Amino acid sequence: MIKHKKAQWPWHGLTALVLVGLAVSLYYATSVISYEWRWSRVPQYFAYQAEEAQRAAGYGKVEAIVQQGSMAKVILRDEDGGEQVLDVEQSSLQLSKGDDVAEGDLIGVTRHWTAGPLAWGLWTTVWISLASGVLGLLVGLVAGLCRLSNNPTLRDLSTVYVELVRGTPLLVQIFIFYFFIGTVLNLSREFAGVAALALFTGAYVAEIVRAGVQSIARGQSEAARSLGLSASQSMRHVVLPQAFKRVLPPLAGQFISLVKDTSLVSVIAITELTKSGREAITTSFSTFEIWFCVAGLYLLINLPLSHFASRLERRLAQSD
After folding, report:
1. This prediction's pTM
2. Which domains are assigned to the chain?
3. Which of 203, 206, 293, 307 could form a disulfide with 143 if both were Cys (CB 3.0 to 4.6 A apart)?
4. Is 18 exposed, middle or buried, given 0-12, 13-18 or 19+ CB atoms closer than 10 A?
């Protein structure tokens, strides 16, 4: 008997209709509060042309000005016969040939593209997420295995660590780590922020690892031991590879949460993406535009991560 596949386009159409409804609702909400959209102010917070002033190093005279397209090469001759050559934008040139100059006089400016605050905030969020994620994975793996250890001391200490970290807010942990531990050990705010995030992530990773290992049938470990493998070899070569396939989805979710949790390190004056967004709002007065861009940048990090984890999970499932 042939089964006919149901048409999917009505459901896709319903999805599109819901999204259009949300967009219309947003437009109506902003019109009610008379909000004026200013998207033209946003690009400068990603990249802009910075101006660098070029000034005379001492007292002297403009000996020559050589035009080179939009640039001008200004040759200054000081009182001792020394020469100073400056390349400036032609449109910004403040002097002409033969003019006298004093030390510190503005000759012109040079312009170059540079990253804006939102771009720098995105970079800070990425490297903090990467550093704390790798450290958190290592800490969580060790703590998770200690939770399964036959040694009571290792088991008790790892349990205290996991329960203590999971039972207190991350914001409080960041404050404690920076203002107490960081002050005592003279740590930088970046190190304190990464360490706090790593320990927080490690506690959740430890529980994920513990649950994944315990989900593997005991017979797997016993069979490995019967083949002559030691307990550590059995764990490393038999149990952990199987457990990794099962814990990958929750691990991916934990690391996606970590990217969003990096916004909390702004409380210790680390200018990551969220703090950069707040600073941009104070100068642009484009509240909604900046926050939409910040949300989009977080999606730019998390969507590829989620897609990569899904593909890896499918590949591992095929290898079973």
Report:
1. 0.82
2. 50-114 (2.40.50.100), 117-318 (1.10.3720.10)
3. 206
4. exposed
